Amino acid sequence: MTVPIAIIGTGIAGLSAARALKDAGHVIQLFDKSRGSGGRMSSKRSAAGALDLGAQYFTARDRRFVEEVQRWQLNGWAEQWKPQLYNFQSGQLSPSPDEQTRWVGTPHMSAITRALLDDFPVEFSCRITEVFQGKQHWNLLDADGGNHGPFSHVIIATPAHQATTLLAAAPKLASVAAGVKMEPTWAIALAFDTPLNTPMEGCFVQDSPLDWLARNRSKPGRDTTLDTWVLHATSAWSKEHLDLPKEAVIELLHGAFAELLHCPMPAPSFSLAHRWLYARPAGSHEWGVLADADLGVYVCGDWCLSGRVEGAWLSGQEAARRLIEHLQ
Ligand code: FAD
Ligand code: NAI
């Protein structure tokens, strides 16, 4: 019987590793604590349609990722997003067009990871709490006391903090992961019955509690019934207001949005807030992957590379490549 490889995390890094291993003929088994795939690249179903509350768009600079995104585009999972971009600085809002190609999942960000998940064996709503070594193989324990295994290798594809807690059996990797700080982001969505009177479709924000805003209907394939906006707070503001109730976060960021647009803003007909505790790495690293090949443990994710969708995908590829290389 072939002993499968366990992959913890079905974000873009875990799915990237899964695809590469499957293509090389390996048997894999995925786990995720959430009810679906995508992690920080997922969308949330809401009364205003599916909303991208995490990754807003992605860029592709590495040749390998450019080719992968072309494949997604050909399959209808991703399309270019060409927003009217603005910049807000020192109280001034000004158009800020550029030539950068930006991609989004269609009809929502989750479409990409959902398609990549394919028919891989996966257990959702399964939070892994321990990775431990048996006589020859690895086993995983989940939060409900379930035991999974045996596995020949383990790939941990979670944010750094969650990876650290799973790395008791690989202390060298644990100490590297423990040194990575990840910062939070408060994200909110505001939906208006009457479209806001602005041509703006995306905005990079400075000198404000806000960091970024995006007009949902400007992305291809989105529901256009309401004029829905996704707003992200800065890491600093999010840290400072980490435990604020969601209603208060919505009120404060709605106020910052009105200030930015310099106009009275109607009350939204729908709003929601989501707190990403481990949104982005505080610093940048170029590890690609953390590996203990003799133990058979690999750690990947955006924090091992660029803190972006592209970095997460490349990190997953690197984990698979290193594992396959060690088997040869
Ligand atoms: P994740 O997507 O975090 O996946 C990890 C998975 O592991 C999750 O599904 C989680 O549920 C699961 N998991 C964690 N612990 C366990 C456990 N113990 N057991 C089982 N499962 C577990 N990037 C861009 O390129 N462009 C952007 O515009 C952009 N904007 C962003 C805005 C926000 C608010 C956030 C939060 C992120 C943004 N990013 C952006 C970053 C991008 O989303 C990430 O770099 C990328 O999605 C990370 O993928 P990943 O697979 O490394 O991790
Ligand atoms: P990108 O090239 O569009 O943006 C990179 C940065 O360049 C932007 O953050 C912005 O500061 C600046 N910039 C780019 N175009 C601009 C324009 N037209 N006008 C003014 N400033 C402009 O995309 P890339 O490199 O793929 O980065 C991804 C984005 O994801 C970044 O904006 C980053 O901040 C964001 N992100 C947010 C996270 C969060 O938790 N909120 C986590 C990870 C990434």
Automatic annotation (TrEMBL):
Binding, substrate: Y57, F58, T59, A60, R61, S96, P97, D98, T185, R308
NAD recorded as keyword: yes
Signal peptide: none
Span of domain Amine oxidase: 109-324
Catalytic activity, as annotated: 1,2-dihydro-beta-NADP + O2 + H(+) = H2O2 + NADP(+); 1,6-dihydro-beta-NADP + O2 + H(+) = H2O2 + NADP(+); 1,2-dihydro-beta-NAD + O2 + H(+) = H2O2 + NAD(+); 1,6-dihydro-beta-NAD + O2 + H(+) = H2O2 + NAD(+)
A Pfam short name: NAD_binding_8
Class in the EC hierarchy, top level: oxidoreductase
EC number: 1.6.3.5
GO molecular function annotations of the record: flavin adenine dinucleotide binding; NAD binding; NADP binding; oxidoreductase activity, acting on NAD(P)H, oxygen as acceptor
General function of this protein: Catalyzes the oxidation of the 1,2-dihydro- and 1,6-dihydro- isomeric forms of beta-NAD(P) back to beta-NAD(P)+. May serve to protect primary metabolism dehydrogenases from inhibition by the 1,2-dihydro- and 1,6-dihydro-beta-NAD(P) isomers.
Name of this chain's protein: Renalase
Organism listed in the record: Pseudomonas mucidolens
